[in-house]
Amino acid sequence: MKNYGIGLLLCFGFLISLSGCFNNDDSANPVLVSSTIFQEDSEGWEAQFAEYEPGLEDSLKLSFTHDNFTVSESFGPVSAVIQSGYATNSDLFMYIKRQISGFVPNKTYNVFFSLELYAQLNENFAGDLDNPSKGSFLKAGILENEPDTTIVDDADNPGKKKVITNFSKGEDQIAASNMAYLGKIEHTGMDDPPLLLIATSDGYSLLGTADDEGKMWVMIGIDTNQPLYQSIYYSFIGIQFQEK
Questions:
Q1: The domain containing residue 23 runs over which residues?
Q2: How high is the mean pLDDT in each 10-residue block of the chain (244 residues)?
Q3: Is the pTM here over 0.85, yes or no?
Q4: b/e map of 19-50 (b: 16 or more CB within 10 Å)?
Q5: Could you give the number of structural domains in the chain?
Q6: What's 188's domain CATH number?
């Protein structure tokens, strides 16, 4: 998919139809909306990495920045948060997270994601990316407790440690509790403009429950099972919460 205009139009359509940071309609099941277009900074989104040996952060080229990038000559610069990492061991999980407030405490919501992101390889890769079970896989989730990482003994490599998540993310295309699989990431080559991906969770019912203070955590991640060095450009994140 190389029509770079579609994603931006979808984003603005989302903002127009569900305008504002948090809108509460007057229906029997109120809808709250969180939207981020990253015009000035990361807007509260933070990045973390998992599924690697601690101490190798530099060699894995892990990074997270806010910047502008060029999609095509017909568009001006696009603002985004950019997360990069090199899955040297064919296994890396990169995710961004944000806590959102303003919910009814202990209330359960149906949660739907709408994302615009771009992907790019930072080094040439000769692997089998056409294989549907190989590559990088996009996931999104809603959690009551903060998604985080911890260091444990690596069961597959005695004597070594491993950074893992404190939540169940599923493997590759497999979803998990409160975690949706949104699709496989496609890449352009390192000398080409980033490739656009539009993703939604419309076909996947996610449930989120606010804590005692009316807060929830949202998470978007890239689960990789190939030795790729890639950058993911998040240019729009829209999340809709509908009271059950």
A1: 5-243
A2: 38 41 53 90 96 96 94 80 94 97 95 94 82 92 94 94 95 88 87 88 87 96 94 95 92
A3: yes
A4: eeeeeeeeeeeebbbbbbbbeeebbebebbbb
A5: 1
A6: 2.60.120.260
